[in-house]
Amino acid sequence: MAASSCQRPVSRFAPSPNGRLHLGHALSACLNFDRAKASDGRFLLRIEDIDQTRCTPALEQAIYDDLHWLGLSWEEPVRRQSEHFDAYHAALDSLIAQGLVYPSFMTRGAVKAWVKAWEAEHGKAWPCDPDGAPLYPPLDKARPDSERRTLIADGHRHAFRLDMEAASARLAVALTFTETGDGKTGVIVTDPARWGDAVLSRSDAPSSYHLSVVVDDAVQGVTHVVRGLDLFAATDLHRLLQFLLGLPEPLYHHHRLILGADGRKLSKSEGSTALGLLREEGASPSDIRALIGC
């Protein structure tokens, strides 16, 4: 069910503390904050720190410092994903109980080798997901349960993947979402199958971005998801997970991206656009808003 128009709007900005915020983050944060303020809504900050190897307390504090400097404020307490692994485990267990998840054992290298061999045999390209990664081969999904249990008992590292074919079979009609962003607008028909058997949990992380984001948005009562156009395609998978888990459907607004000199979207490795560096060089919050056009 989509968010009710009578409900007080709730938006959120959800960065990962694995690098310094840049101009692209500033655009997303300011858009969320401004839209919440204009609609008498609530603005939330979420720290997506599932990746414990790359996320650090110092980078998390830098996020707070940068956002405060921009003049943004948010409700407390801040939701930190590392404190809610149980919620993601529960969602994964629900999907496992529905028979929609299976353990996968192939490493990236093994997938790459399998795809290369398949393409050589068939003379055509193996399909990729919207992010450009090859769809996961069907080998693990075809394994008998007894073989899966043996591999796990023997200590083989594994991830859990969504069985896209089984999940899609649950849909009586195509899923949609309402989009008001800078690309396509209106009611968008999803195609989650293009993501293949997406990862939901890995041996080194208790949840994927896709699973945790839909759980967090539901728990926090987010009604309006405002994020970059680079995540537009991910909404297909998020809507499917919301449907399978019985979670509410937010409204979506995917905004334009801030591009670098090479025409690509900014990354956290782009030091020249880091908010902290711009501040040290004498930029003001109003300068940042002028740079991002917000």
UniProtKB/TrEMBL annotation:
- GO molecular function terms listed in the Swiss-Prot or TrEMBL record: ATP binding; glutamate-tRNA ligase activity
Q: Fetch the PROSITE patterns from UniProt.
A: AA_TRNA_LIGASE_I (PS00178)
Q: Does the keyword Zinc apply?
A: yes
Instruction: Name the UniProt key words of this record, in alphabetical order.
Output: Aminoacyl-tRNA synthetase, ATP-binding, Ligase, Metal-binding, Nucleotide-binding, Protein biosynthesis, Zinc
Question: Domain of life, per the record?
Answer: Bacteria
Q: Which GO terms describe its biological process?
A: glutamyl-tRNA aminoacylation
Q: Name one Pfam family in it.
A: tRNA-synt_1c
InterPro entries associated with the record: aa-tRNA-synth_I_CS, Glu/Gln-tRNA-synth, Glu/Gln-tRNA-synth_Ib_cat-dom, GluQ/Sye, Rossmann-like_a/b/a_fold
Domain Glutamyl/glutaminyl-tRNA synthetase class Ib catalytic positions: 11-286
Annotated EC: 6.1.1.-
Q: What GO cellular component entries does it have?
A: cytosol
Q: Which family is annotated?
A: Belongs to the class-I aminoacyl-tRNA synthetase family.
What is the protein name for this chain? Answer: Glutamyl-Q tRNA(Asp) synthetase
Q: Which organism is it from?
A: Allorhizobium borbori
